[in-house]
């Protein structure tokens, strides 16, 4: 018996030591161990190095293996190993810093993964490491969007310092300034586009969302003084990847997404990517829903190392209702009405079609000269019917407000907008002695046109005494109007029934034929902007300088296509100076000065009732800060301090007869500090955090009461944190946990010194479980069910945030 047990033990020991193993460690050029480096064997076996930079593959079969090592910022390297039965082979590797030149135009997809992004085109129009851009740039990657299930840019921006929602529309505050003021101009892949304002599109086709802080006019022409948002679409990859995901959750939400990419031929000169999206969701807001279809194909042609061509299309079909916000009682009690109550009717609708087609081309003549050109065509189509507030409370016969009744109006509108943007530039990489230069010189052209055919019908006001028309109520001419008595109160009869905020069942299918309409056509509008610019990025030892100058010419066509047509031309010469000093391998210090401008006429703000033409917005930025990388360059930290001065800003005029009328005040100054943290603390521990302090106040105004008051919609403090930890080994292998919080302090509402929005803090969490190619994910948002508002114009148009909600997602990668 003893001999039998001894034989069994010997056999077990032999089997243990007979395992065939490859193991080792990965170091950087300075000899430091590298956690989180990717190590692969063949097509199916992959791992990452642990906290000590070590890796191991066990239970291998004898044979020939190619072990490949890769890590962000380093060359991919590989070793071939011939394994014998029972052999343990130790393979050590020292990575070499990547020497490959960054692509001048973003045509091939980003190789990085995780919460950290290392380079961008938005800061210099060339692929420049973010650490070397002398201006603050915040961003959110697709991996963070997926972990949080943030499917709208409004949900994404909470992870950025100094950026918050102004309303629930595509409408944001950056460093105290509202971005919507520049006519809904956005950037898509660094090109100017004008899209629908009312609904934020899905983000499933985006690689990242990024914001360059402060005036960016020297790069992109007229833009908001606080900053500009750039949406970067996913580009084709050289390796085959396919994924599907399906989500369901609160408010009857269902979403399905697909992402396919890879080479289309064996030589990998033709690449493709196709993103598909479908959403069908209700809302916590009564009568609200969103149904979206997205098709986003992209094709890249790489005939040789010097030539690149890309075609990128995004088509979004949106069917929904327009939510004009929540109204509360006229006594300014913000909690008097449930946040779920909207002002819509059951037969309202908003249908939008948005097409964006981008073609980009890049050719490198030699190692010193490269040419880049890109063209973006945008088509936006709106078909709208809405019951909405008339921006006031109902009146009795003495013209006194009835605080629980809201005046209503109906809008029926159809319109199309077309925009075009061409950007062409050369880059020159040259040296003058010991000074290196990267020179960019180019020309931009952009135009936007709303042709004839746009029209709307509006029903509002009070009915006349013969019930044949409607108009604004005049208490001094009471005999002109029709009256009714309700609950003992005599009041004029509205053209569109008032909305009763106290009613528990206010929603109806209204008979649209019973209203009296005022019909009008939108005049055709057209504007164009042209810019010529030159920029030089100089390098001398530890110092870098960025010098830029742009001449921009903006032309607005008043009375477009009419006999009285005339051109209103505004010109600007825009400088930019930036300095970067490399303290050590971890920290860069920077400082910058730049100017900006933004024309603002009735056509550019898309509202002829606003008045104008107005003088252009003129701004300047002074900013200084530090950018650093830590934890073996896995974690980046940016700290900045800034001051922005803006002249000629528009505010509401307070005209009861024309609530859309705007007026100009003298000067607004915004100053503050910001911090952004992005990346990984360990290979399994991801982190993003942001904080911003901002004082944005009117410094010069005809109204003394406005001076020193914080700008509408701008919080003084805001911040966020999100972290995710995944378990790689043991019985809980594949399990991950995410959690975070974001807060925003009190904000003023659209210039009214009485109405404010309260501060709020939200807590969110998620749990993940990954097994093989499947991942199960559940997100729980607003865990403590806080009542809060993301923004608003006034107490008749508030935009509440969602109560506690959940979303479950199943994804499969193959």
From TrEMBL:
Residues 1-18 form the signal peptide. It holds the Pfam family TonB_dep_Rec_b-barrel. It comes from the Bacteria. It is a multi-pass membrane protein. Belongs to the TonB-dependent receptor family. It comes from Chitinophaga nivalis. Keywords: Cell outer membrane, Ion transport, Iron, Iron transport, Membrane, Receptor, Signal, TonB box, Transmembrane, Transmembrane beta strand, Transport. NCBIfam families: TonB-siderophor. Residues 304-783 form the TonB-dependent receptor-like beta-barrel domain. InterPro entries: Beta-barrel_TonB, Beta-barrel_TonB_sf, CarboxyPept-like_regulatory, Plug_dom, Plug_dom_sf, TonB-dep_rcpt-like, TonB_sidphr_rcpt. The keyword Transmembrane applies. Residues 130-228 form the TonB-dependent receptor plug domain. PANTHER family: FERRICHROME IRON RECEPTOR-RELATED, FERRICHROME OUTER MEMBRANE TRANSPORTER_PHAGE RECEPTOR. It is found in: Cell outer membrane. This is TonB-dependent receptor.
